[in-house]
């Protein structure tokens, strides 16, 4: 089908084009990246010919002037005054009201069309198009300059990874210190549970001013469902997946690591699974370089699994094998551009990506290992420094 | 202007209408409310004639079948197979690819048009409209049944409030135990800072399996900017605002409370500010009943402030007085329908709202008090049980 990318620009649109945001920067990392301003409710931001302007309600405007890196921070209420002069009533807080404000702003600045992210509001686009403006969305990444990290961003990611590693070590230490009775793990307080290990992780991350997001502590059959966060009593002698991906609130950058451990004795089959995943991860890392695509890296993982005879597909009504991407970009979002999987995203020096192959078979267990990798001019640098141990 | 609410439905659209979501349920509480399924990446959900269907990628589909309350959980990959049969290639993961999948689903079910939230993706709407489907957005609240809480939801909010109160008490205890030297607060470790009090709050909330969101601990001039989270050394003898609004991760419901305290001696002007805010809060609560509007409650607050001569407006380039809404709905989101401020949202029994009047003058300080209020058949119930003290 014809891409609506160009057809969405109405023919009546003239004047300049502005990049437009009407969202909150706690959720929209692009907006935070461009403004340096953290807001939990939707704010209005326009960027015209490289110059950004913020329009904030009276509750936010003073903080915006102090904390954002934008020079032009305006009171949205003053734009509302203009709307009232024209229409006789103050604009509401929904899409219609914001569109009325944007019309005033656009007319002052000779803006005739807007570029928005593909996730931008359909309601706002409809209102603006109804006023004769062009609205064109761009597929992700909407702010592509965010993918190649500056040195200060790489340092911020390293900082988040240090917190991630400390939390991972605390989780592993708790599991390592537990006893096995009748195949299940116990510590001094009784049964060792996923919830209890997560509380250790969350408490340590809170102390370090990190938002833990969700934490995965999943053992046995739960570990075979890669997005199961894990609940209940943890088993001994079978793999437990620990996946920790906090945001450092001081910088807003994230770390993302996975380790898989067995308290006690792993079966030979589980050990072979672990060895294959470790081998695939090394193969993936060896494929990382500027100019390679995420697909190349993903193919390197699949090749190792195929060589070892590990098949992927439906078995007894559930997916087994390797059925997720090899990784994803990491930065202000835990998941961001580029993908390292089905999409043909080309890697560039300065990208930070995760490499996290895994194998999942309910009769053996689930194993995943994940580090955060910087793409460098001549290959890669593993930003994680923590060793990978299996039996503990 | 003409509302695009109806004009957006193209005339070619026939067949049934489905409510459509393509977003993640960690951010979209409507989607979590309808599915009971927590997903951090966008998932596809359609509801036709009250029957919901989830379409999940292979990484999520097993967890979706176990954890969601939706009976029909499908593999999105199987829809992708149909797309490949028709177009010759598998659909991508962007808006175009999802629209191609939705076309297959819609044709099987005789769906001709979609209702989406006003925040729904413009790109998806453009793609679907380009295929001849009608796409109509509705202003918030998109899932209005979420506003009146069921008894189990009210209990979940009470649970979140208990955690909020425990964290608030811990913060107040730390400030109360500090010493004043040269007008600043100190504890055994040295200067008592906003960051240190926040770490206490965050650690306690993590132990209780709560996501703290952001925490505000702002003293002196910082407290006069209601969205300033607070940084640095805390002052004695002037108001410190503590605003805590965590999500209980076990239920996903939130609490939201504010207290303002002075360690040491408050000035007479600050005491008058506190008394006026407390009086306005009582007046607001007295105005809460089914059938009242949020505007009525807000007006009750403004009336008290006007009677005491507290003016609102710009002074020396910043806003002073009372320049935010009186409150907002509270539930799966910290801010949800109904508003208690400028909008004419009518209160109904079962709504849970915050009441949080405040006054902010840089030469006196900032004072805000906030509790969470259930609208009942005959008035209101304060779900918070914690006392309000000023000087500590």
List keywords for this structure.
homodimer, 392 residues, alpha+beta, Creatine Amidinohydrolase, Chain A, domain 1, Creatine Amidinohydrolase, 2 domains, six-stranded mixed β-sheet, three-stranded antiparallel β-sheet, 32% helix, 26% strand, disordered N terminus
Secondary structure category of chain A: alpha+beta
Query: Largest interface: which pair?
Result: A-B, 65 and 65 residues
CATH A-level architecture of the largest domain in chain A: Alpha-Beta Complex
CATH superfamily of the largest domain in chain A: Creatinase/methionine aminopeptidase superfamily
Q: What do the pLDDT scores of chain A average to? A: 94
Count of the domains of chain A: 2
Oligomer: homodimer
Shape of chain A: elongated
CATH class categorisation of the largest domain in chain A:
Alpha Beta
Q: Tell me what portion of residues of chain A adopts beta-strand conformation.
A: 25-35%
Radius of gyration of chain A: 25 Å
**CATH third-tier fold name of the largest domain in chain A:** Creatine Amidinohydrolase
Physical arrangement of strands within the biggest beta sheet of chain A: 4-3-2-1-5-6
Number of helices of chain A: 10
Distance between the termini of chain A: 54 Å
Note the main sheet of chain A. Answer: 6 strands, mixed
Helix content of chain A: 25-40%
Strands of chain A, total number: 23
């Amino acid at each position: 089908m014809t891409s609506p990318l160009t057809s969405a620009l109405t023919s009546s649109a003239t004047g300049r084009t502005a990049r437009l945001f009407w969202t909150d920067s706690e959720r929209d990392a692009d907006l935070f990246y461009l403004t340096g301003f953290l807001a939990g409710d939707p704010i209005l931001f326009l960027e015209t010919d490289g110059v950004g302007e913020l329009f904030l309600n009276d509750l936010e405007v003073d903080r915006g002037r102090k904390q954002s890196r934008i020079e032009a921070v305006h009171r949205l209420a003053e734009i509302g005054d203009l709307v009232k002069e024209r229409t006789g009533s103050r604009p509401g807080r929904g899409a219609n009201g914001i569109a009325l404000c944007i019309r005033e702003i656009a007319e002052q600045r000779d803006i005739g069309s807007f570029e928005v992210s593909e996730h931008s509001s359909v309601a706002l686009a409809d209102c603006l198009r109804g006023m004769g403006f062009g609205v064109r969305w761009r597929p992700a990444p909407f702010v592509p300059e965010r993918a190649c990290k500056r040195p200060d961003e790489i340092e911020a990611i390293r900082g988040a990874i240090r917190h991630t590693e400390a939390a991972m070590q605390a989780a592993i230490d708790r599991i390592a210190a537990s006893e096995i009775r009748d195949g299940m793990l116990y510590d001094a307080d009784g049964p060792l549970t996923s919830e209890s290990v997560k509380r250790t992780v969350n408490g340590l991350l809170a102390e370090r001013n990190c938002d833990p997001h969700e934490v995965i502590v999943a053992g046995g059959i739960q570990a075979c469902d890669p997005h199961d966060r894990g609940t209940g009593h943890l088993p001994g002698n079978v793999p437990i997946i620990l996946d920790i991906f906090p945001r450092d609130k001081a910088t807003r950058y994230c770390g993302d690591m996975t380790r898989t451990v067995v308290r006690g004795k792993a079966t030979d089959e589980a050990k072979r699974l672990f060895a294959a995943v470790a081998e695939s991860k090394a193969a993936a890392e060896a494929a990382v370089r500027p100019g390679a695509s995420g697909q190349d890296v993903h193919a390197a993982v699949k090749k190792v699994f195929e060589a070892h005879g590990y098949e992927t597909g439906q078995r007894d009504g559930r997916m087994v094998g390797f059925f997720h991407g090899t990784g994803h970009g990491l930065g202000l979002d835990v998941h961001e551009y580029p993908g390292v999987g089905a999409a043909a995203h080309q890697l560039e020096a300065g990208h930070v990506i995760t490499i996290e192959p895994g194998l999942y078979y309910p009769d053996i267990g689930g194993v995943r290992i994940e580090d955060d990798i910087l793409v460098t001019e001549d290959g890669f640098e593993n930003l994680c420094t923590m060793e990978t141990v299996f039996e503990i």
